[in-house]
Design a protein that fits this description.
- The complex is a heterodimer of chains A (330) and B (314).
- Chain A has eleven helices and twelve strands.
- The longest helix of chain A has 18 residues, at 190-207.
- In chain A, 31% of the residues lie in helices and 24% in strands.
- Chain A starts with 5 loop residues before the first strand and ends in a 12-residue tail after the last strand.
- In chain A, helix 4 packs across helix 5 (128-141) and helix 5 packs across helix 7.
- Chain A has 330 residues and is of the alpha/beta class.
- Chain B has two domains: 1-94 and 265-314, no CATH class; 105-264, MetI-like (MetI-like fold), CATH 1.10.3720.
- Helix content of chain B is 78%, strand content 0%.
- Chain B contains 15 helices and no strands.
- Chain B has helices spanning 2-29, 34-39, 45-54, 61-73, 87-92, 95-122, 127-141, 144-158, 174-208, 211-218, 223-253, 255-260, 266-275, 279-307, 309-312.
- In chain B, helix 9 crosses helix 11 (223-253).
- Chain B is globular, with a radius of gyration of 23 Å.
- The interface between A and B is medium-sized, with 35 and 25 residues.
């Protein structure tokens, strides 16, 4: 878990979508630093803004209706102010993306080979022949048997696990400094999930990439992440080293998420669910975004004032007025 | 792949059999005696008897159909009530004129629709997009004969650039052929272009919003490559479908324009056959148009397999 210099620094990232009912504030003031070789997990329910916050890094959000504000600094350059041509030199080359649902994220009418080689040819200036050889190595690297044959096949001819591996090969193709894996294992069988996680970790160790791993599954996070951001209603509610998050949970929402996880060997324990629904991004509640569902909203400020993200221990930040008692922290 | 071809050819044969029944019954749906109707009020009873027997009207209906179909399959479509010439020759000699008009119109349509639809979708919501949508709405709303008349008024009568009607064989005079072809092809092509523009735009917009387009952008590819390689290739499948249907429609549906421009195609032949109650000729023309339609749709479906690899292996 050795981490190096800061490769990506995100400050006060905001994403708004214009809708018929008014602006939807999908991401509200997200900040973090990503270090070389580090794995940062962003955890949250559907609609928490976790995927959008990473699409916004390289402005993959359609603008309009979307609007991205804040700062995303990669090696001294703010990506949000880069001209389109310079931004394209970052996409795929320095920040690789692995999307969820490889069935729809891969182009159905192009061969696997074409989809892997096009980035190589464009960014690294490889010839068609060299790009193809590199693509074969990449498919081999991500554990696809018989890569030569697979290069000539189309996505629909591959199984779900194989398609996800192709997505990973595309994300890794140009050996980016940052790899964003958005629910990269969610659609897969547990055994394949484990293989993919292992694969990304191995490649990360070999290539020294920083990885942002987006998931709604805190169970997956435990095994892979160095640090965790817990997002809810477009905001970061808690940020901690992975071990601290589990051992010293501070935010009632994180506690709720952890309580809803089944634990092996505690078959008799009732799973606790968080009552209520995530907030509507067009009509965010005043005060803390989580307070309408929070079991501890005793402080009068919860409904009126936004709790700032404050440091409660080294590297552990939490946005809550309430001090979660030690016994509730698991 | 071969299974797919066999299945599609089989379907085409079934469709053609259905068409043949309808075309055959066409004559019998006309009230009264088709031969008497086609001969008018004063005729030689001997000629009547001859035509009646030659048409096989003294046989039961199913036998008439079997005989007619058997002959048609061997290329014998009967003889014209009016001229006594074999129908086969009459329709086949009209086919090149109709085909050249249909293909020229489709070509014009695609030359308009592909750039207009692509730009409109890529700049969706812009002033260009609204202008294209408005123009294509106008194009769809105006009937082909109105375009025909306006084009004749402008290019023939006012400017004198192009002949107002008629036909020149491309073998005799290629330039004359093209000069005569331009106005009729434009009158239909402008409408096809308007219809196709809307489909190209819709297909492009759909593909632009797919996840694979986002993936292509996440690779940092230039926008031109994203549009041409990723978006357009996917959009081509629905575009080819509609273009094929348009071509089928153009082969059978340009009757009015052929009549206005005195274009010696199948539509005009069918129109004249209706006026003269020359049923065998009408049957032959309709059958040939239907056959072209089915064949073109078959070719379009086979073209899919080249455009969309998912179809190839199903």
């Amino acid at each position: 878990m050795s981490t190096g210099d800061v490769v990506l620094s995100v400050r006060d990232l905001r994403v708004t979508f214009g809708t018929a009912r008014g602006p939807a504030r999908v991401v509200e003031g997200v900040s973090y630093d990503l270090h070389a070789g580090e794995t940062l997990a962003i955890v949250g329910e559907s609609g928490s803004g976790k995927s959008v916050s990473t699409l916004a890094l390289t402005r993959l959000i359609p603008e309009p209706p979307g609007r991205v504000e804040g700062e995303v600094v990669l090696a001294g350059q703010d990506l949000l102010t880069l001209p389109p041509g310079a931004l394209r030199k970052v996409r795929g080359r320095r920040i690789g993306m692995i999307f969820q649902d490889p069935m729809t994220s891969l182009n159905p009418v192009l061969t696997v080979g074409r989809q892997v080689t096009e980035g190589l040819e464009h960014h690294l200036g490889l010839s068609e022949k060299d790009a193809r050889r590199r693509a074969r190595e990449l498919l081999d690297l991500v554990g696809i048997p018989d890569p030569e044959r697979r290069l000539g096949e189309y996505p629909h001819q591959l199984s779900g696990g194989m398609r996800q591996r192709v997505m990973i090969a595309i994300g890794l193709a140009c050996e980016p400094e940052v790899l964003v894996a958005d629910e990269a294992t969610t659609a897969l069988d547990v055994t394949i999930q484990a293989q993919i996680v292992e694969l990304v970790q191995r490649l990360q160790a070999e290539l020294g990439m920083a990885v942002i791993w987006i998931t709604h599954d805190l169970g997956v996070v435990a095994g892979i992440a160095d640090r965790v951001l817990v997002m809810y209603g477009g905001r970061v509610l808690e940020e901690a080293a992975a071990d601290d998050l589990y051992a010293d949970t501070r935010h009632p929402y994180t506690a709720g998420l952890l309580a809803s996880l089944p634990v092996v060997g505690e078959a008799g324990r009732r799973l606790v669910s968080i009552t209520g629904l995530p907030p509507d991004p067009v009509d965010l509640p005043p005060g803390c975004v989580f307070h309408p569902r929070c079991p501890h909203r005793d402080d009068p400020r919860c409904a009126t004032e936004l709790p700032p993200l404050r440091e409660v221990a080294p590297g552990h930040r939490v946005a809550c007025f309430y001090e979660l008692p030690a016994e509730a922290r698991r | 792949m071969s299974g797919y071809v066999v299945r599609r050819v089989g379907q085409a044969v079934v469709v053609m059999l259905g068409v043949s029944v309808i075309v055959f019954l066409l004559v019998h749906l006309v009230p009264g005696d088709p031969i008497r109707r086609s001969l008018g009020t004063r005729f030689d009873p001997h000629v009547y008897q001859l035509l009646y027997e030659r048409a096989g009207f003294d046989q039961p209906l199913y036998r008439q159909y079997v005989t007619w179909l058997g002959n048609a399959l061997q290329g014998d479509l009967g003889v014209s009530f009016r001229t006594g010439r074999p129908v086969r020759g009459m329709v086949l000699e009209r086919l090149p004129a109709t085909m050249s008009l249909a293909f020229a119109a489709l070509f014009i349509g695609l030359v308009i629709a592909l750039p207009a639809g692509i730009i409109s979708a890529v700049r969706s919501g812009s002033r260009t997009d609204y202008s294209v949508s408005a123009l294509s709405q106008v194009g769809v709303s105006i009937p082909d004969f109105w375009w025909a008349i306006m084009l004749i008024l402008l290019f023939s009568l006012t400017l004198g650039w192009l002949p107002p009607s008629g036909y020149k064989s491309p073998l005799e005079s290629p330039v004359g052929f093209l000069r005569h072809l331009t106005l009729p092809a434009l009158s239909v092509g402008l409408i096809s272009g308007s219809i196709l523009t809307r489909f190209v735009r819709a297909a492009m917009l759909d593909a632009l919003h797919r996840d694979y387009t986002r993936t292509a952008r996440s690779k940092g590819l230039p926008e031109r490559v994203v549009i041409n390689r990723h978006v357009l290739r996917n959009a081509l499948v629905p575009i080819v479908t509609v273009a094929g249907l348009q071509l089928g429609f153009l082969l059978g549906g340009v009757v009015v324009v052929e009549v206005i421009f005195a274009w010696p195609g199948l539509g005009r032949l069918a129109y004249d056959a209706v006026l003269r109650r020359d049923y065998p000729v009408l049957q032959g023309a309709v059958l040939l148009v239907a056959l072209s339609f089915v064949v073109i749709n078959l070719l379009v479906d086979l073209l899919y397999a080249r455009l969309d690899p998912r179809i190839r292996y199903e």
